[in-house]
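Internal QA ticket QA-208
Title: Verify multi-chain structure generation after dependency bump
Assignee: T.L.

Test input:
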Amino acid sequence: MLEAHALTCVREERTLFSELSLSVSPGELVQIAGPNGAGKTSLLRLLAGLSRPYEGEVCWQGENIEHCRDGYHQELFYLGHQAGIKHELTAYENLAFFRRMHHQGSRANLWEVLARVGLAGLEEQYAGQLSAGQKRRVALARLWLGGPRLWILDEPFTAIDKHGVKVLERLLIDHTDAGGMVLITTHQDLHLCADRARILHLAPSREDDA
Ligand SMILES: Nc1ncnc2c1ncn2[C@@H]1O[C@H](COP(=O)(O)OP(=O)(O)OP(=O)(O)O)[C@@H](O)[C@H]1O
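Actual output:
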């Protein structure tokens, strides 16, 4: 279970949010919603342990993530705005690299995974020659490698076409059905069952001092 207790986030002397608490239990998906600049990415980065809160703490299985960073990061898949793929490698080589670095227990067939994300026929294309949506699909293919229980996904649907969105929504459902946890930001409406998805609305920040 992931829990955030009374988080305050300050950027350039501006309080983006304060006293924010949330929890994500196995089988749950929480969508962070709010207008541009409300602090969604900042919140996800705090929850992923990529930056530190001004106040408050983030706990994984009851322990502050500062004290269990390695174990926490083994259980976490974080997808940020940058696709994080290497342009000089092919789509297949990128996925093989991800597996070697982060998903060593995965026995997934990489050709099948690439086909699932709609990259059949493009496996040996250099990533630098792929379109924005195809590059995003290479990054998202990691979700099919298995392993981490907690997925923190920042705008995963960016540049993805309608069919790709449906495929990814199906995967989110399967992951939560299997007891996984998802935190996601997206400006799209998600077509998931209401009983598995919750929405947390972040209000626009105020121009006050911390
Ligand atoms: N490292 C930083 N230093 C200074 N200000 C920052 C930093 N990161 C974010 N901000 C500011 O914090 C505010 C919130 O940014 P954030 O990226 O969290 O918003 P968001 O809700 O994810 O927006 P969007 O929907 O546009 O992606 C913005 O005003 C941004 O300029």
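Spot checks passed. The first strand starts at residue 2 and ends at 11.
Status: verified.
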